[in-house]
Design brief:
Layout lengths: L15 E3 L4 H11 L9 H6 L9 H16 L4 E8 L9 E7 L9 E9 L2 E10 L9 H4 L1
Antiparallel strand pairs: 1-3, 2-5, 3-4, 4-5
């Protein structure tokens, strides 16, 4: 990788701790994505569903992961991101993200990442991402004049 991104096999992403997630965080995200399911903001509904607190949206959690990766390598380098949710993230939880570069020998100048998110001792998500070199700027007729 160029521009100082340490994408050699075995390189670790800087650990990130996010939270504790506040109800306000979840409500702001609900406004942005339009997901007003009461499971995400109503404690009584969450309790009836068996949760100790409202549940953060999966999209929100995936967005936190994507932001962490792109803060490290740059948004222009993120080629692919797959997230697998293993357990809910609740309001009040603190999410810890760790990960690293699995390999740098795929022949395309890209590097696969393995990522894990946890709250306490519970792994709540795993993710795989692929980062690549910065794309060359596009040349258009307008930019040539």
């Amino acid at each position: 990788m160029s521009a100082g991104v340490p994408a050699a096999a075995g390189a670790e992403l800087p650990r990130r701790v996010v939270g504790p997630l506040a109800q306000t965080d979840v409500l702001r995200f609900a406004g942005a994505c339009g997901d007003f399911n009461p499971l995400h903001h109503d404690r009584a509904v969450a309790a009836r569903a068996g949760f100790a607190a409202p549940v953060a949206m999966g999209q929100m959690t995936a967005g936190i992961v994507a932001a962490w990766i792109t803060d490290w390598c740059g948004v222009e380098r993120l080629r692919d991101l797959e997230v697998r949710f293993l357990a809910p993230v609740l309001v009040g939880d603190t999410l810890t993200l760790t990960g690293g570069v699995e390999s740098d020998e795929d022949g395309r100048g890209t590097a696969p990442l393995a990522v894990e998110g946890s709250t306490g001792d519970t792994v709540v998500l795993t993710a795989r991402a692929v980062i690549g070199p910065t794309p060359a700027p596009e040349t258009t007729e307008r930019s040539r004049t």
